[in-house]
Amino acid sequence: MKTSKKILFTLVLITSISAFAELGPKKQIKHTLGNENWARCAQEMLLKETNIYELSYIRSGSMPLSPFAGKFEPKYLPSSPTPNEVQLGNMDVLNEDVNNANQGTQMDAFGHFAYIEEPWDGKTDLKLEDIKYLGGLTQKDVKPTPNSPLLFLGAETIPPIVTSGILLDVKKYSNSNKNFKAGEFITEDHLKNAIKNSPILRERGILAGDVIMIYTGWSDYYQDPDIDKIYYSTAPGISYGAAKYLASKKVIGVGLDTCCVDARPDPNNPSKFKQPPGTPPNQSFPVHDYFLTKVGIYTLENLNLKRLASDSVYVSCTMILPLRSKGSAGSPIRPIAIGSSN
């Protein structure tokens, strides 16, 4: 594909080359999601018996809630008439201190995570120059004061993502059609088995710019209202090795039907939870760190993949449009997949 024909989504940020990006003038990142990716999308949309699949959950005050993002309590205001007019209006508001961006089906901006070279002792003050982000940006660059928005790497820099989406049904093809359990890791071998055993993926494989969606079956615990409170208490997730494998394929985003992308310990048996060999130490969320601060791959959380998996739609045209919330560390999303059974 000629450079002149590429349609580039430019992120104005100073950073290094991400997993699927080009380094442009003045060190601006340009995600080259253009004609090639859109042609793959168009091919899926033109197939016979194509369906639209909602990949998000309905947002409500009773849905499973992240323990890191505060309460989510919509308040519905009375119908409001206007004097001397014949029309009324309806509105609603959210509670104070809600982290709206990180509740429900959502994606993380690159500025969601930072890192330091040595473990923090929990007592001393951190130096701003010791905190680093994607591409070596420092805390002074990205978030210079405690109440500052993200000056770089915020949600407004996430491009519209319109590309081919790949469903890896690791439940069906790598786990004997059994749901992955609390704290279990989806490894590189699990991903490769799903590719090898999926009818269309064994020949196609993963291509640069794909969005990867991994179905574990954990979403069976997603309830609204969330009575049992299991979904967010723990979760399976991908291993560090699996994350490196996906990065080697130059994907632009990775999401699961879980809360966290990373595996989370089973609270009923936390001593059994151990990160696989080769995982960097002193990190509760090593995959988040790797994707967001090292290679520039977006993390997608709480994807609704059950119907997509049930219909065996392994390749689709996937569209993910985040809100352009300036300085935010993430965004609610309503992703969709357009495709037919493979």
Question: Which helices and strands appear, and what pairs or packs with what?
Answer:
Blueprint lengths: L8 E3 L10 E2 L5 E3 L3 H11 L5 E4 L20 E2 L3 E2 L6 E2 L2 E2 L12 E3 L30 H4 L18 E9 H5 L10 E2 L1 H10 L3 H4 L6 E5 L21 E2 L1 H9 L4 E4 L29 H10 L2 E4 L4 H5 L4 E6 L9 E3 L3 E4 L3
Parallel strand pairs: 10-12, 11-13, 12-14, 14-15
Antiparallel strand pairs: 1-3, 2-3, 4-18, 5-8, 6-7, 9-15, 9-17, 10-16, 16-18
Helix pairs in contact: 6-7
Report on this structure.
This protein is α+β, with helices and mostly antiparallel strands and about 350 residues long. It has a domain of about 200 residues: Glucose Oxidase, domain 1. The protein has a nine-stranded mixed β-sheet. A three-stranded antiparallel β-sheet has the order 1-3-2, with no helix packed on it. A hairpin with a 5-residue loop joins strand 2 and strand 3. Helix 6 packs parallel to helix 7. The chain is globular and about 65 Å long. The N terminus is likely disordered.
